[in-house]
Amino acid sequence: MKKLSSRQLQAMETRQKIIAASYDVFLENGFQKATISQIIQKANVGYGTAYVYFKNKDDIFVEMMEKTMRKFYEVAEIPFAPRTKEEARHLIEHQVRLFLQLAIQEQRLLQLMKEAIGISDLVAKKWKAIREQFITRIAQDVAYSQANGLAKSHLQPSLVARGWFYANEMYMWELTEQEVPFSLEDAVYHLTEMYTNGIYE
Prior knowledge:
elongated, Arc Repressor Mutant, subunit A, 201 residues, mainly alpha
C-alpha cells in the first residue's frame, strides 16, 4: 500500500476526532437534541473543517452506525458449512447468541439508532441498506443448506433470510429496552428452535 502523506494522516486524524466526539455528544443529548455545533466544539476542530468531512449530524451518525453494525456483520460472516441438521443447529445457536450479546453490549448506541431511524430519512435509508446486506448473507447460508440436502428445497432463500433477520432484529431492539420480558438464553433457544425446525429437514 502507498504510504499516506502527512496531510492525509492529518485528515484521517481530524475525521476520527469528529467521530469520537460525536459518540459523547449523541449519548449525552440523544439524536434529536444533539447538534453539529456541539460535536465540533467537543472535537475542538474548526467549524468549516468539520463540514469538509460531513454534511450534517445525520451524516456523522450514519458513520457511527456503520462502524457499530460491522461488529454484528462479523457474526453473520462466521463460516457456515454444516454437514448435519444438528451441526447447523449448533452453528446457528452460536451466531444468535453472539448477535444478541452484541445488542446488550451496544445497548446505548442501539437506543440512539432506534431514535435516529424514526427521525432521519438518511439514517432510515442506511438502516434499510444494512438490513439488505444481512439478508443477502443469510440467504447464502440457506442456499448452502438446501444444496447440501439439509434444508427444505421448496423454500425461497431470500424470503427465509428476510424473515429470519426480522425476527433477530425484533429481539435486538427489545434487548435495548429498560425492561426485557425474556432472558438472553430464552431468546437464543426459541429463535434457534423456530428457525431450524422451520427450514431444516
